[in-house]
Amino acid sequence: MAQNSTLVNGWQPVIGLEIHVQLQTNTKLFSPAKNQFGEEANTLVDLIDMGLPGVLPVLNDGAVKQGIAFGLATNAEITKTMVFDRKNYFYPDLPKGYQITQLHYPIVKNGIVDVEGKQVRIHQAHLEEDAGKSMHDVYDSESVVDLNRSGVPLLEIVSEPDIRSAEEAVKYLKKIHQIITYLDISDGDMSQGSMRCDANVSIMRPDDKEFGIRAEIKNINSFRFVEKAINFEIKRQIKVLESGEKVEQETRLYDSVKDETRSMRTKEFANDYRYFPCPDLVPHEISEDLVKEVKDNLSELPEEKQKRLMETHNLNEYDASVLCADKSIANFFEEVAKGANAELAAKWIIGDLNALLNKNDISLKESKVDAANFSKLIQNISNNTISGKIAKDVLDEVWQSGEDVAKIIEGQGMQQISDEGELEKIIDKILTENISQVEAYKSGKDKLFGFFVGQVMKATHGKANPSLVNQILKDKLK
Ligand code: ADP
Ligand code: MG
Prior knowledge:
The chain is an alpha+beta fold. It is built from 16 helices and 16 strands. It has a nine-stranded mixed beta sheet. A three-stranded antiparallel beta sheet has the order 5-4-15, with no helix packed on it. Helix 6 (302-313) packs across helix 7, helix 8 crosses helix 9 (342-360) and helix 8 crosses helix 10. The structure holds adenosine-5'-diphosphate and magnesium ion. Pfam families: GatB_N, GatB_Yqey. Its EC number is 6.3.5.-.
C-alpha cells in the first residue's frame, strides 16, 4: 500500500467542499433590484424578491455568462440546457417558501482544478438565488429579516470528495478564490459572505472500499476556520468510531470561539425538499455563440498572468507566482513597475510589503499604501537617494500615515549621503578616534572592516551610501 502522509492515527480523512460564491452582477438573479452589499436593510428589494404572488422571475444574462466563465476556467462542460428547480422549505428569510436552484441540469459539470499539482474534480457548479438574512441581535426581543440579499445570484461549486486533509481543503478553497477573483465574477470576500464554504468530512481506513459516513459543516466564513473546523471534525469522528459508535450523517455548525463543531440537525434527504422544475422559468438554452462570446472576453487567468509577468518583467517563476497568488497584489505590482525597476519592486512587494499585510492581517485595498507612492519608494532606492535600510523606515511611515514618499524623505532628512567629501570627513574622524583598531586591522585583523562600516553608519544614522563608504574606507586603510 502506498504511503499516505495525510493519514491521522491510521484514518484517511475524505473531504468534499460546497462553495457558495456571490456573483458580481448589477442586478439580482431574477429581479431588477440592485445587487449590492452594505446598503440600508430592505432597500434593495423588488416584488420578486419579496415573493409576492403574480410576479415572474426573469433570468439575469450576466449571471449566466459568469457561470460560463467559471466553467471555461476550470475546463468543465458547459451545459446546453439548464433547468431551474424549486427547492421547497420554510424559513423567515425565504418569503417565497422555495429557493430557485439547479438540481439535475446545472450550468457547469465535470471541471478540474489544479491544486499544487493535484487535480481536484468539480462535480458541478450551479446557479441559485441567495436567501435574505435573519438578524437576531438588532432588537432585544425580536428577530428581523433583511431581504437585500434575497435573490442575489450565487454560483454553488461542488467538488468531488477528492480532498484528503484540512490543509489541502484550504489550498483548494484558495484556488477557487483565485479563479473567481481573476475572472472578476466575485469579490470573494469571505468576511462579507461573498464566499462561503460547507465542508463535508468523513474518515475511512486506507484500504476500505467505501467512504465513511460524512458530516457537513455549514457556512464556514474564513480560510482559517475551514482548516480548524475540518481538523476538529476529523478528530471527533475518530473518537466516535474508535469508541465503537457510528458517525451520524448530519449537519453541524462550527463555533469559532470554542473551536468545535456542534450538531445542528440530522441530514434531511434531498427529496424532503420536494424539488420540481420551476414552472415560471422555461428550460434555458445556452448557445455555442454565447459560450464563444464569453471565451473571447475571458479575463486573464492566474497562470497566464504569471507567464506574462515573467516574460515582460524578467521575473523568476517563484517571484511571479507569489505575486500572482492574489490578483490585487499582481495588479499592484504592474502599476508600480510602470515607473520603477521591476525586479526591485517585486522583491519589496514580496518581502516587506507582504510582511506588513500579513502582520496586520489586512488586504492591500484596506491599507494606506498606493501603487504610485510605492513606486516612488522603489525609485528612490534604485537611484540611491535612500539606502535599503532607510527604505524600510520610509515604508513603515507610509504604512502608518499614507504620506507621500518624497515628503517623508525630505521632511526627515533621510536622503542618503553620497557626497564623497562629506563622507571622507566623517571617516577621517572615525579613524583618528579608533587608532588601536586601525593598527589591528593593518596588522591582519580583516574582520575589523565591518566595525568601521558600522561606525560610519552609526555616525550618519544609516544614511551613508554603503558602496561609497566601502570604497573610501578601503582606500584609507591601505
Ligand atoms: P447531497 O446530494 O447530499 O448534497 P452530494 O453527493 O451531492 O450530497 O455531495 C455533497 C458534497 O459532499 C460533495 O462536495 C461531495 O464531494 C461531498 N461528499 C460526498 N460523500 C462524501 C463522503 N463520504 N465524505 C466526504 N465528502 C463527501
Ligand atoms: Mg448539497
